[in-house]
Amino acid sequence: DMHLTVIEPTATGWLVGGGWKAPPSFLGSNPTSPPMYEMILDVTWNGEGAPSIEIIHLGGEGVIHSIMPTNDGFIAAGTADSVLINGKDVTSLGIASQSATVDKRGDVWFFGEIGSTNVAIYSDDEISIEKLPNPLHITPEYSVIDDSGIIAVHGVNGDDEISSLSIDTDARLSFTSLRGMMDLGFILVSLMIISLMMWNVVE
C-alpha cells in the first residue's frame, strides 16, 4: 500500500518518494493503524511502453517528504532519516526532519519539530548544525526559498493555527555573524603568521 507524495525529475526519469503502509501482520504492527515506512522509487522511461520502477530505498518508520537536487546528486529528506542518492548508490545522512528545502547555493536545510533550536544544513558533502535565532514556534509542513535567498517555512503552531517564519540564508555567511567573525579572525591570524614567516626569511 504505497503513499507517494513527492516527485523529482532525473536525467532518465523520476525519483518518487513517500511511504509504504505495512500489512496488519507485519512485525506485530497495529492492525487498525499500521505504520508507514520511508520509501524511494527510481522510475525510468524511454518514451515507449510502460516505465520501469525500482525500489532503491526502504527506510525506518516515517515518510519521505522532500526530494531535492544538489551538487552531489539528490537528497531525499524524511521524518525518520534523510539519504543522499547518487545514481543507484544511497547513503544515509542520519538526519530526521519535518520539512526541507535547498537554497540558491545548493545547500539543503532540514527543519525539525516545533521547539527546535537548531537547523541542520548539508553543504559540500558535510553536515553542519546552525543555531536558530529563536526556537521554532511551528511544526514545519512545507518550506520554500525565493529568488532573494529567503526561506519561508510554513506549518502549524501550538494552537493548531497556520503560521510561518522566514530565514535569511545569507545571514549565516555574513561577516557580522558569529561564524563570519570567526572566519575573519582566522584569516587575519593566518596572514599575520605568514607575514612574520616571510619577515624572518628576509632577515
Primary descriptors:
203 residues; mainly beta; 4-stranded antiparallel β-sheet; 1 helix; 12% helix; 49% strand; globular
Describe, in plain words, how this protein is organized in 3D.
By secondary structure, the chain is mostly beta strands. The chain has one helix at residues 178-202, and strands at 2-9, 13-21, 36-44, 52-61, 64-70, 73-78, 83-86, 89-92, 99-102, 108-111, 118-123, 126-131, 138-145, 150-157, 162-168. Strands 1-2-3-4 form a four-stranded antiparallel beta sheet, with no helix packed on it. A four-stranded antiparallel beta sheet has the order 5-6-7-8, with no helix packed on it. Strand 1 (2-9) and strand 2 form a beta hairpin. Mean pLDDT is 86; it is low at 174-178.
Can I get a quick summary?
12% of the residues lie in helices and 49% in strands.
Q: Strands, helices and their partners?
A:
Blueprint: E1 2-9, E2 13-21, E3 36-44, E4 52-61, E5 64-70, E6 73-78, E7 83-86, E8 89-92, E9 99-102, E10 108-111, E11 118-123, E12 126-131, E13 138-145, E14 150-157, E15 162-168, H1 178-202
Antiparallel strand pairs: 1-2, 2-3, 3-4, 5-6, 6-7, 7-8, 9-10, 10-11, 11-12, 13-14, 14-15
Computed over alpha carbons, the radius of gyration is 21 Å
Average pLDDT rating:
86
Measured by DSSP, the beta-strand proportion falls in over 45%
Q: Using the alpha-carbon principal axes, give the shape.
A: globular
Helix content: 10-25%
Q: Could you tell me the number of beta strands? A: 15
Helix and strand run: EEEEEEEEEEEEEEEH
Helix run count: 1
**How does the major sheet shape up?**
4 strands, antiparallel
For the biggest β-sheet, the strand order reads: 1-2-3-4
* Low-pLDDT segments, ≥5 res: 174-178
Give the N-to-C terminal Cα separation: 77 Å
Task: Please state the structural category.
Answer: mainly beta
